[in-house]
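Q: Sequence in, structure out?
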Amino acid sequence: MRKVFSQLVWLVSLTVFIVAASLLPVKAGAEAVPPDQPPVELPAPDVIAPLDGGAYPPEDLEVSWHEVPGVPNYIVTVRNLSTGELVLPGAKIGNATSYQIPALLLTPGHYYRIAVGSEAGGKRKFNVNTRIRILPGDQNPVKPTKNLLAPVLTGWPASGEVELGESFSLRGRIASKGNLEAVTVQDRVGDRDVIVWSRQVSGSGLDLNTVVLGTSEGPLSGPGSHVLTLWARLAGDPGSSLLLGSLKLTVLRPAEKFTGVSVTIDGQPLVFDSEPYIEDGVTMVPMRRIFEALGAVPEWDGDSRGIAASKDGVNIRLWIGLPEVEINGERITLAKAPRLAGGRTYVPLRVVSEGLGARVGWDPTTKTVNITRRLAPAGTVFTP
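A: Exactly. Output:
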């Protein structure tokens, strides 16, 4: 009986505690959120002006956008695509929906990307889809109308490099709900735009992977940085070309290459049909031999000038002239891009070997690269 009474007292005490706790005031800011309710995503502003692909005179440029409900602050950044410089790192506008970019920040003949962002609760979300050109003072502005049929560019790289005398392949695809009429690639040379490549198009899309630019002659025959811009014109609208994207292409002088490099795998010499070399501290080796020695079979895609190989569930992709590698969908920047030399495709030894699960060491005394297999999971990259 005494035991039953004790249990009743304990139960009554627990009930009183729960009721009292439920009556306590909730601390400000501690309002509960249902655990299955996803966080609200901060939307980016919809830019009204300037219009993407427009060309404007070298004067103060007004940027305007639609209000985003609940956003207390907007930010505007401006990057010069011709030089890569961020000329306006981030102007905080408050809750206004327009901003004037001073003319002194805008160089005639240069291309710019304007980004407008929402800022709330410590988060930011930018609309980066506005690219314009500032015209030389003697040209009339071109302000395209906003067109639902405007072409869309996907897969276009931001940068690339090629050795002088070699060729560079573009990447990406243009798709449009309307029919394309012409597509051009231009390079800024001095104070004028020079057409590097042009094609008349009939249809709603164009695969750019088949476009190869040469550096033996023409605008790209000089070493240095070139800012290439891609333009498209819709059929029936001959007066308006839309700027779709820009690419910083670096044309390299033929670098001094240090040969006499030896390579071993698990202590055994690896013989190549073309000599490996070191350039700017990166060991470059013939593509097919290194992949096959590591147990992977490379495949060549002539359209994109890409290299693909797989082993133990790991997929590796590289492209001639592009300083990046893709391993199982993850992009990694390379110190040196794969390139063609002497009729052979050369790839960076370390990233390929480590991507396929090997360790790479360097003996400076004998100028030997030592590869040890099966010491790391395939897909691991220790150094880019």
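Residues 53 and 372 are 52 Å apart (CA to CA).
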